[in-house]
Amino acid sequence: MNNVKQFVATLISTSAMVAGLSGSPALAQSSEQASALPGDIIVTARKREEDILKTPVTVVAITGEQLDIKGVKTMQDLAASTPGLNINDSSSGHADRSFQQIILRGMTPSTTLATTTSLFIDGVPIASPSAFTAISAPERIEILKGPQSAYFGRNTFAGAVNVVNSVPDGDWSATVTGMAGTRNNYRARVEVEGPIIGDALTFRATGEKFGKDGSWKNETNGETLGDQSSATGTLLIVAKPTDKLTIKLFGMIARDEDGPSAQTRILAQNIVAPGGTTVYASQSNCTVNGNPFICGTLPRFSNGVSANTEMSENIRNLLAIDTNRVVSPDDTVDHYGLLRHTRHAHGTLDYELNDQLSLSLLGGFNREKWSTLIDLDGFDTSMLTSAYSPYGYFDFPYLIERDNKDWSTEGRINFDFGKLRGVVGASYLYARSYSGGGSALSTASAASFYKGGKDQSETKGAYFGLTYDFTDSLSLSAEGRYQVDKLASYVSSSGLTVASDVFVPSGTYAAGTLLAKRTFKNFTPRIIANYQVSPELMLYASWAKGINPAQFNTGILSESAAIQQAAADAGMALTVDPEKMTNYEIGAKGRLFGGRMTYSLAAYYAQWRRQINSILLTLPNGTFTNGVENVSFVSGYANSGSVNLYGVEGQFAWRPIDLITIDGGGAINVTDIRDFASPTITALSGITDYSGKEMPNTSKYSANIGIQLGGDVKGQDDTTWFARADWNFKSGFYSSQANLAKTSDAHKVNVRAGLGWGDASIQVFVTNLFNNKAYTSATDNWTIEQNYAYMSTYSAVLVGLPELRTGGVEFKVKF
Question: Span of the secretion signal (predicted)?
Answer without folding.
Answer: 1-28
